[in-house]
Fold:
Amino acid sequence: MSNEPVDTLRELIFPVILSGGSGTRLWPLSRELYPKQLLCLVGESTLLQDTVSRLDGLSDVADPLFVCNEEHRFLIAEQVRLIGKTPADIILEPAGRNTAPALTLAALALKANGANDLMLVMPADHMINERAPFHAAVRQALPHARAGHLVTFGIVPTAPETGYGYIKKGYDANVEAFVEKPDTATAQRYIAAGNYYWNSGMFLMRASVWLDELKRHRPDILEACTGAFAGSRRDGHFRRVNKDAFLGCPSDSIDYAVMEKTDRARVVPLEAGWSDIGAWSALWQVCEQDAAGNVTQGDVLTHSTRNALVIAQHRLVATVGLDDVIVIETPDAVLVAHKGQ
Structure:
């Protein structure tokens, strides 16, 4: 991150891109050493590149800060370079400890740099189709974040989805409750109520407020991350935190560590074609389908096949008489599954 003094007259938004996920549900394309955020699943850009690029046109946005696994550092740096962006910092986690410690390292980096500390927190492996409503939601969230609230973006649901957690909106923008993944009947009640949103895992908040709330609710995470960051060192374009200190950090998510406990949570609705592409069926849903409902990539022939996702990377793949299937062919593995599985 640059050591130049920050212009205090302009309050910049610092994008924090959480890039440590492994995307194991999209095996065999997504692997431990090449996870889904680094793949071109929709279009010609990777999910990571799309996450960074969707900020284009939003005013007062600083260079992005990344938190990622050490094994992915060069891939991430190269993908960012290819779209003409310069990382403010790339913080390397010695091991995965979920999203709360990752965000804490980013907040400590901003604090150490003396920057104003508005953080726009985004997972690197989500898709958002429409930039304009996303920008509008960020602008709507800004007054809440500037006032010291922790803002989460709630996805306006399009179906009674049972694979997502939900956020219940109370009076004004207050978060009344975070609720776990529901069964179908409960999800239908949520949709009918009109004040429940899918939990997106995206946030806007001040780094200082995050650190204060973490101190209240999970001081053990704050202590471990503070020690790890204090022992960090530069390694070229990367920042390596102290390994021993970080390995002692408990693993927890942003939601469980703070958001479900704080009284400063606010929610802003977001309706912008969002998907976390958390399964092959989700990728099929967001991709353009042919007249038979099929999504194909690569050298693929389909006959009497409907509502299928077929991806061929290495050789011709042909399907006959199949409905609702997933077929993923790679040089060293082939997955064939029913879409519901």
Observations:
- The radius of gyration is 21 Å.
- Residues 1-9 have pLDDT under 50 and may be disordered.
- Residues 131-146 form the longest helix (16 residues).
